[in-house]
């Protein structure tokens, strides 16, 4: 059974500091090792920054544990994300965010939801 889900919304760039603090605090409280907390915080920061750069609205984050994993959903009004691509070349100006998310997380799943997209990232506890 999942532990109680905790969440927060974000809408503007000034919210990103609160997003990172929220994710770090909750992940530590849920038992994720510190080195993995930094990876999770990086991944969520990349996803939420993409939300603010590529959609007209903000988003919502949910985080909990389930079956020995920490699970984090990032939900926004954006289109489906193109996961599964290689890391862009060193001279590319953009495009590393989603590749970084896949690199630092144990699994990444995305699906359409009413009004947008859900990206679920998981890290083993």
UniProtKB/TrEMBL annotation:
Keywords: Kinase, Serine/threonine-protein kinase, Transferase. It comes from the Bacteria. Residues 12-122 form the Histidine kinase/HSP90-like ATPase domain. The keyword Ribonucleoprotein does not apply. CDD domains: HATPase_RsbW-like. It holds the Pfam family HATPase_c_2. GO terms for molecular function: protein serine/threonine kinase activity. This is Anti-sigma regulatory factor. The lineage of its organism: Bacteria, Bacillati, Actinomycetota, Actinomycetes, Micromonosporales.
């Amino acid at each position: 059974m999942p532990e109680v889900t905790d969440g927060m919304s974000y809408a503007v760039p000034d919210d990103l500091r609160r997003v990172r603090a929220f994710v770090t605090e909750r992940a530590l409280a849920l038992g994720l090792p510190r080195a993995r907390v930094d990876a999770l915080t990086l991944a969520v920061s990349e996803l939420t920054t993409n939300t603010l750069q590529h959609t007209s609205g903000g988003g919502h984050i949910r985080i909990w544990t389930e079956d020995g994993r920490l699970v984090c959903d990032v939900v926004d009004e954006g289109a489906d994300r193109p996961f599964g691509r290689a890391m862009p070349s060193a001279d590319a100006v953009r495009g590393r965010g989603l590749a970084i998310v896949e690199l630092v997380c144990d699994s990444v799943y995305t699906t359409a939801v009413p009004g947008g997209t859900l990206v679920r990232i998981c890290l083993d506890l």
